[in-house]
Amino acid sequence: MAQSRPYYADQSLSAAHYDLITAADGRLAGDVEIYAGLIPPDGAVLELGAGTGRVTAALAERGFKVLGVDIAPAMLRQAETRRAGLAPDVAARTAFQRGDMTALDLKRSFDAVICPYFTLAHVPAGTAWRNTFATAARHLTPGGLAVFHLPLAEIMRAPGPARPDLPVMDQPLADGGRLQLHVRRRTFNDKVGRMDQVIEYVERDPKGAVRRVSPERQTYYVADPVPAAAQAGLTLDRPPIPHGGVGEFWVFTRV
Ligand SMILES: C[S@@+](CC[C@H](N)C(=O)[O-])C[C@H]1O[C@@H](n2cnc3c(N)ncnc32)[C@H](O)[C@@H]1O
Fold this sequence. Notes:
The protein is of the alpha/beta class. The chain folds into 2 domains: about 5-150 and about 225-255, Rossmann fold; about 155-220. The protein has helices at about 15, 20-25, 30-40, 55-60, 75-85, 90, 125-140, 155, 225-230; strands at about 5, 45-50, 65-70, 95-100, 110-115, 140-150, 170, 180-190, 195-205, 210-220, 235, 240-245, 245-255. Strand 7 (about 170) and strand 8 form a beta hairpin. The mean pLDDT is about 95. S-adenosylmethionine binds near residues 51 and 69. S-adenosylmethionine binds near residues 8, 102, 117 and 123.
C-alpha cells in the first residue's frame, strides 16, 4: 500500500472529496437543524473545526452570523470558495479563519460555540479536550451554549467491515468517474479510547480505470466529555441528543 497521509492534509482526497462524502452520508442528515434549534435567532456563532463550511454556510443561510475556524488549509480553501458562491447577504454573515481550537483566543464572545461532526474526537481526550472546552468557555457569553457532536463509543469500537474487499462508500463523480472508499486497517485501543483506521480513497475514471489512490489515516478519541467541560466551567445543559445512530450532541452551558 502507498504511504498514507493524515486526514484533511494538503493533496489529500479526504479534503478534496469532503463535500461529496458528507452529502452522501445519511447519518449526518439534520445536524444543521439541531444547531439552528439551539442558537438564539440571529445569534453570533463560533464554529470550531469548520472544515469546508458545510455547517457554517447553512447556518448563515438561516440568519446566524458564523465565524468558522479550522486548522487545515486544504479545508479552508474550499470554505472560501463556498463563501464566494453565497448570496451577498449570506456571505456577509460568514467568515473563516485559520486557527487551532485547542489554543484559540479571539478576544470576543459569541452566543453559541459549536464543534460539529466529531471534530473534538480528532484531538486526544485529555489536555486537548480540556483546552478545547476552555476555548469554548472563553468565547461564550454568560448563558450561551456550547454544542459538541461526538461519536458513540460503540461505533468507534466496532471492527472494520466484514468484507474488506467491498467499498464502504461508492459515489459517482461529476466527470462520470467514481470515488470508492475502503477501510484498510482499523484498530481500537481500549486503554486510551482511541480508534485508528486507514481509509483508502480510490478515484476511477469513467472507464473504471484507477486514476488516484490515497490511503489516509484517521484517528478518533472517545471519552466522557463532562469532566473536561466541567474543568472549563461548562455544565451539561440537558441529556445528550442522539443523532443518526452514530453520534450524540452534547450541549453545555457556561456557568
Ligand atoms: C469532520 S470535519 C468537520 C467539518 C465541518 N464542521 C462539518 O461539520 O462538515 C473536522 C474538521 O476539524 C478540523 N480540525 C481538526 N483538528 C482541529 C483543531 N485542533 N483546530 C481546528 N480545527 C481542527 C479538521 O481540519 C476538519 O476540517
